Amino acid sequence: MHVGNQQYTMRNISIHNSYYGINFFWSWGFTFIGLNVDNVTIALDMTAGGSTSQQVHAVTVIDSTISNAQIGFNTARNSTSLSPGAGVLNLENVKFKNVQQAVVGASGTVIPGTNGTKTVAAYSQGHRYNPNGPQEIQKVIPANSRPSSLLGKDGKSYYTRPKPQYGDVPLAQFVSVRLTGAVGNGIKDDTDAIQQALNATSRNGQVLFFDAGTYRVTRTLYIPSGARIVGESYSVIMSSGSYFNNVKKPRAVVQVGVPGETGEVEWSDMIVSTQGGNIGQIGAILIEWNLASSSSAPSGMWDVHTRIGGFIGSNFQGATCPTTPTSPKSDPQQINEKCYAAFMSLYVTESASGLYLENNWFWTADHDIDANYGGNQITIYTGRGMLIESTAGNIWLYGTAVSFTSIIEPMLSCPTATNILQNRLSTIPSTNTNSPTLKTPSWARSKPKPLTGNPTPTPPSPSRQTPSTPTPSSPATPSSPQTTPPSPFPTPTPGACAS
Questions:
Q1: Are residues 137 and 183 in the same domain?
Q2: Is 213 in the same domain as 100?
Q3: Residue burial 62-95, b: 16+ Cβ < 10 Å; e: rest
Q4: Domain assignment of residue 159, yes or no
Q5: CA distance 40 to 266
Q6: 152-161: long-range contacts at Cβ-Cβ below 8 A with a sequence spacing of 24 or more?
Q7: Are the CB atoms for 405 and 382 separated by under 8 Å?
Q8: Do both 115 and 179 map to the same domain?
Q9: 360 and 429, same domain (yes or no)
Q10: Taking residues 384-400, what's their average pLDDT?
């Protein structure tokens, strides 16, 4: 692999019979988990630019094996290398088999190799803060303690879980959300139709398929235990309306379980968004997770993202929310309340546990990606990013990112939050917080006082909801014909499962 990019997490990569296993020509940050490199000259090379101009900033390797190599990790760092923050390497539970030099730095061998087998429990090179710094470090260090509930079946490596593909599920067990009347054109209110589909499919052990489209909802969607949900080309659930515009009573757009509910949910390949207009979405919590799952059978979200603003139909775009608003306001900060886009992206409550997150980006748009504004930056406000308050914990965060929120990018509520694994957790602060003429509104800077217990109305339990089960032979018909104007969204095409 000849690679370079911003920030990545890669799992279960195997490379055999090559000169390089992985050769970096630049990067900001990469994490490898379950890496297996065998019969190579150099397993991982991060010397691009040399010790005076290092181009590779940070690499972390966890629960991995290097076999039959001359050099395991080849780096250009020493105590005087430049830039000072580059060339960072962290290893945890890495096994070396017949490797001549395990780790090499700019000044020579740092960790010698072996003709047999040895495991490096933990190694770090770079800057250390304990608690002050920076202090230069380039040595084997004590390994982190690993709670048993976060480990896989071998009792040593961290638990990982691939995204479900449902290849062994019969076609008849897939149900399109269109069959209960959802349209997905970004205009029709699909709340009731989606809720009916969620209730029926979770009760019957079916997989709910969201055909490509934008599904507008005006109240909280409740996902009960047992749900298996998969999107098509990142299907979008988009909140809209006054229900989500009360900052003193924030409400979930999608609520997974209710406090005290147990079981398992699988959710993949979708986006949750908000829609502005004459009012914002200042009270919208895009995803609230209450469900308690066991550490041996956790729930999971794979490739589920929040995208707040910056796309056609969101009404949080350059025309309304430019980088530097110019319209006069009585507020000297000139903040356009129509650009209050969300309260929070992800809220994992105290009652939640057993949650596996992989490749989730909770993004507030800093630029307009769809319209004719040339990708120009915009100014919209999301109060908070990700807040985890889980007391039981057993939460895994693999390849998770939070960007451009006013406060609480990723935040763990201490001391209540426990047993949480984080790696390559990317954060970017809000682009408007340092502007001399435009400051973050006070509501976004305040602590989330409303978030005590369950901030959304508790829906009826699944046992009390008895809609008819949708079947392919009898699709539901919308209760009234469409009289709304043409949708700004692309016309969705039914997927393979919407026959």
A1: no
A2: no
A3: bbbbbbebebbbbbbbbeebeeeebbbbbbbbbe
A4: no
A5: 38
A6: 156/63, 156/93, 157/34, 157/63, 157/93, 158/33, 158/62, 158/63, 158/396, 158/421, 159/295, 159/298, 159/356, 159/396, 160/11, 160/12, 160/33, 160/34, 160/396, 160/398, 161/298, 161/300, 161/356, 161/358
A7: yes
A8: no
A9: yes
A10: 93
Cβ atoms of 60 and 122 closer than 8 Å: no
Same structural domain, 86 and 205: no
Give DSSP secondary structure letters for 39-104: EEEEEEEE-TT-TTS--B-EEEEEEEEEEEEEEEEEE---TT-SSTT-SEEEEEEEEEEEEEEEEE
Residues 16 and 60 reside in one and the same domain: yes
Q: Which of 233, 283, 176 is CA-nearest to residue 489?
A: 233
Residue 487's pLDDT is what? 37
Q: Is 298 helix (H, G, I), strand (E, B) or coil?
A: coil
Shared domain for 388 and 252, answered yes or no, is yes
Least confident of 125-139, 263-277, 321-335, 393-407: 321-335
Alpha helices in 144-220 (DSSP H): 191-204
Residue 91 domain boundaries: 2-144
Say which range, 203-212, 304-313, 459-468, has the weakest mean pLDDT.
459-468
75 within some domain:
yes
Q: Enumerate residues 6+ apart whose C-beta is below 8 A from 162.
A: none
Residues 200, 126 within the same domain: no
Q: Is 476 part of any domain?
A: no
DSSP state at residue 396:
E
Peptide bond into 259 cis (omega under 30): no
What's the token pair of residue 391? 């007391």
Number of domains making up the chain = 2
CATH code (residue 34): 2.160.20.10
Partner residues linked to 266 by β-bridges: 228, 300
pLDDT in tens, 312-335: 999 999 888 887 655 444 444 567
